[in-house]
Design goal:
The longest helix is centred in the N-terminal third of the chain and has 15 residues, at 111-125. Helix content is 24%, strand content 28%. Strands 1, 7, 19, 20, 23 and 24 form a 6-stranded antiparallel beta sheet that branches. By secondary structure, it is an alpha+beta fold. The protein is globular.
C-alpha cells in the first residue's frame, strides 16, 4: 500500500498561499464527523494491528496526557496512572511499536501543562508524527512547539486565549468584515443598480434601506448608465469602521435620499442563489455550521438546490472558498450524489481511547439515496457545472472532486489550491485553540490532489465577470440550448448581468429566490 504520510515539499509556497487563504476565509476543517451524526454511510478498514502486550517491540513511544480537574482545588495534583503498554504493528514500516501512556490530573493549569497537553495531542493524532521536531529547549512553550511543527505542516496551528475566540468565530460562523449588508441586481433596463436584499440588523437594515431601492451613487460617484454595476463594484468596498455614502431612490424613500453607513462585520448566508441566461447559479462561500436564521451552509444548499431544480443546468461556484467544516461538506455532497457513490476516501491517524494508542485507518464515505440535488423534476439526473480557482481549497476541493467524479460534473476555471489534508480542532484547557492535521484525502478514483490541486476540464483564466459569462455559455451548451445572442439592439448584456451576480458572490449574499425569473 502506498504511504500517504509525507511532509510538505514546498514549505514556503504553502506558508505564503496558506496565509492568503486564511485572510480570504476559513482554511481549516472541523474535527472528523461522528458517523452517528452524519447522513452518509462509512466503511472503515483498520490499517495498524494491535499485538499482545508481551510481544517484542522494536521501539518505545512514551505518552503523557495531563487533564485539568478543578475538583482537586488550586495546586492540587492527582496520582499518576500508568496504563498497560500497548503494542502496535505499523502498517507502513511493518515494525512493532510499544506505546506507554501515563495520565495525571491537575487542579491548576499553567503554560507547562498546556505545552504537555498539546504535545500529547500532536504525538497521538498528527498525521506526520514520525517527523515531529525535537522539543528540547522549548521551555514548555506551546507557540514555539507549533511554530516548529508549522514548518513541517503549515496547516497545524495553535492560537492562544487572546486569538482563539476570533479564529473560532471564523471557522464556525459566516460573519464578513467591512460590509453594509445588501445584495444588488441590474435593473430591467440594465442601466442602474437595484437593491435586491437587505440583511436584517446590518448597517443597511438599521438605516432603513429596502429591496427595490435604486442606488444612484456611491461616495458621490454616479452608478447609473451603461457602466452602473462596474462603478458600483469599484466604489462600494472598504474596511470595517469606514463610511460609505449611498444615494438611493425608490420604494419608501420619497425621492432621492442619502445614507452614510459605517461598514461592520455582518453575518451573511453562505449560499447565494441566482440565475444567468436561464441557468441556475449557486455560489458557495464556505462550509459553515452556523450562518444566519439558525441555518448552516448545508441547509442553505438544500434550499438552493430546490430553488434551482427547474433549470436544465446549475452552476456550482466555489471560487475563493477556502474550506470549512468537513461534516458540512460531506452532507452537501450527499445531497447531490446518487446512492452508493463514494464521496471521498480518508487516511486517518487518531488516538484510540479503547486501545490507548494512536492508530491509522482508511475511511470511505458513501452517499445515500434521496438527496434533493440528485434528480431533475422529470426524474433524470441533474446536470452541474463546477467553478474553482487557486483559492478553492480543503473542503472546497473535497466537494469539487466528489461532484466531478460522482455526478459527472465538469470543472471550469483554474487549478485549485491543493489542500488534501484535514485538521481536528480542539479547545485547550488554557482556552486556546489547537488545529492538528490528522486526515489525508483521496478521491473516489484514488486521485491524490494534495499539493497538486484539481486541474479543470475547461481551463479559463479570464477575469471573474468574464469567467461567469463563459460558464453560462458552457452550461447552455451542456443543456443542448443555443447560446444567447448579445447585441446592443436586444438590450441584453450578458457581461453586465454576470458582473451583478459576481458582485453579490463577493459579498457572500444570497439574493431572494423570487427574483430568479426577473434575472433571466
Amino acid at each position: 500500500m502506498t504511504d500517504l504520510r509525507f511532509p510538505f515539499r514546498n514549505v514556503t509556497a504553502c506558508l505564503v498561499l496558506g496565509l492568503a487563504l486564511w485572510l480570504a476565509g476559513c482554511l481549516f476543517d472541523a474535527k472528523y464527523p461522528d458517523p452517528a451524526d452524519s447522513t452518509q454511510s462509512y466503511s472503515t478498514v483498520n490499517l495498524d494491528t494491535l499485538y499482545p502486550a508481551g510481544a517484542a517491540a522494536e521501539s518505545v513511544v512514551t505518552l503523557f496526557q495531563p487533564f485539568q480537574d478543578p475538583s482537586l482545588g488550586s495546586g492540587g495534583i492527582g496520582p499518576k496512572e500508568a496504563l498497560t503498554p500497548v503494542n502496535v504493528k505499523d502498517h507502513v514500516t511493518g515494525k512493532v511499536v510499544q506505546y506507554r501512556l501515563t495520565r495525571q490530573r491537575f487542579g491548576s493549569w499553567d503554560a507547562g501543562l498546556e505545552f504537555k497537553w498539546n504535545y500529547f495531542l500532536l504525538k497521538s493524532n498528527f498525521l506526520f508524527a514520525a517527523d515531529m521536531p525535537d522539543t528540547s529547549g522549548m521551555e514548555n512553550s506551546s507557540p514555539t512547539l507549533f511554530q516548529r511543527v508549522h514548518a513541517l505542516d503549515s496547516f497545524t496551528n495553535y492560537f492562544d486565549s487572546v486569538d482563539a475566540p476570533r479564529i473560532w468565530a471564523r471557522i464556525t460562523t459566516s460573519t464578513k468584515p467591512g460590509a453594509v449588508g445588501v445584495a444588488v441586481r441590474l435593473s430591467a433596463g440594465k442601466d442602474s443598480v437595484v437593491i435586491q436584499q437587505v440583511v436584517a440588523n446590518s448597517p443597511a437594515g438599521r438605516a432603513g434601506l429596502s429591496a427595490g431601492m435604486v442606488i444612484l451613487s456611491v461616495n458621490d460617484s454616479v452608478t447609473v448608465g451603461d457602466s452602473a454595476i462596474e462603478r458600483f463594484s469599484r466604489f462600494s468596498g472598504g474596511d470595517s469602521g469606514s463610511t460609505v455614502k449611498l444615494e438611493v431612490t425608490g420604494p419608501g424613500s420619497n425621492g432621492p435620499k442619502t445614507f452614510n453607513l459605517v461598514r461592520e462585520p455582518v453575518a451573511f448566508p453562505t449560499v447565494m442563489v441566482d440565475s444567468i441566461q436561464g441557468i441556475g447559479y449557486l455560489s458557495i462561500s464556505g462550509f459553515t455550521p452556523n450562518t444566519v436564521d439558525s441555518k448552516s451552509t448545508y441547509t442553505e444548499l438544500r434550499d438552493g438546490l430546490l430553488a434551482t431544480r427547474g433549470f436544465p443546468v446549475t452552476i456550482l461556484d466555489l471560487r475563493d472558498n477556502g474550506g470549512g467544516s468537513l461534516d458540512v461538506a460531506m452532507k452537501m455532497c450527499d445531497e447531490i450524489l446518487p446512492a452508493d457513490i463514494i464521496i471521498i476516501r480518508q487516511l486517518q491517524r487518531r488516538f484510540d481511547e479503547s486501545a490507548h494508542a494512536p492508530l491509522e485507518s482508511e475511511i470511505t464515505a458513501v452517499a445515500t439515496a434521496g438527496g434533493v440535488g440528485e434528480k431533475a423534476p422529470d426524474g433524470s439526473r441533474r446536470k452541474y457545472l463546477l467553478l474553482g480557482n487557486g483559492h478553492s481549497a480543503s473542503a472546497s476541493e473535497i466537494f469539487l472532486v466528489s461532484i466531478r467524479e460522482g455526478a459527472d460534473a465538469p470543472l471550469m476555471g483554474i487549478k485549485t489550491y491543493g489542500k488534501g489534508v484535514g485538521q481536528t480542532v480542539r479547545n485547550t484547557p488554557a482556552k486556546g485553540l489547537s488545529l492538528v492535521t490528522f486526515l489525508k484525502f483521496t478521491s473516489r478514483s484514488k486521485l491524490d490532489y494534495h499539493l497538486h490541486g484539481l486541474v479543470p476540464d475547461y481551463p479559463d483564466s479570464s477575469d471573474s465577470d468574464s469567467l461567469l459569462a463563459h460558464a453560462a455559455q458552457k452550461a447552455l451548451a451542456m443543456a443542448g440550448r443555443p447560446a444567447a445572442k448579445v447585441s446592443a439592439a436586444s438590450g441584453y448584456d450578458v457581461s453586465r448581468q454576470a458582473a451583478a451576480v459576481e458582485w453579490n458572490r463577493r459579498q457572500g449574499i444570497r439574493p431572494g429566490v423570487t427574483d430568479l425569473e426577473e434575472l433571466r
